[in-house]
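This section describes the prediction task in plain terms. A model, or a person checking by hand, is given the sequence of a single protein chain and must write out its three-dimensional structure as a string of tokens. No templates, partner chains or ligands are provided. The sample shown here is typical of the held-out split.
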Amino acid sequence: MTKILDSTQSYTFSKIFDLRISADDLAAEFGYTLTRKRLTLPTYTGNLEQLDALQARIERVLPYVDLANEMSRREVLISQVVLELVHYTKAQLKIEYSIKVTNHLQGYLDYLLRSHTELLVIEAKHQDLDYGFTQLAAEMIALDQWDRTPDQPTLLGAVTTGKVWEFGLLHRATKHIEQGLDSYRVPDDLDPLMRILVQALS
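The expected answer:
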């Protein structure tokens, strides 16, 4: 198979996004496989006491905010969800976190959350979730190979525009990535979205 990445070049996660290659081709480049399917992700069943207030707050401000650029989506939508997630899980949050595994697996993770034993990565994209998932796949592969990743059988990642969230799951033993077909919209699907995120770090 012809290699996509030049062995003599360095690549960051964002540069991989710019290459506009499919997620399954990217996975194969690093010896992983990928399938697209509906994911049955575990959900938190306890009380999320502040969720209604968060949803109401987001709905109140949306008519007055221009979400045309990635920064506004991060500030108004993504950061609200992430901070709420930290509230419920007490996870450690790293923003724009730099890691380097190899010259082909390096760059900044938009959001990296770590609880006692579980780790979650969230990639924020402006619009293109398809190639955004390719970048997320590269980040999950990097975390799989990173010596500071907790010893857990799967890695969960999410790619989001702020309004829409999609998930990916990396099975570490088999080097297989599942790209979820389901989308979660904010604020409409905030409850099921937050229950997946909270459970992932619980």
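For orientation: The chain is about 35% helix and 25% strand.
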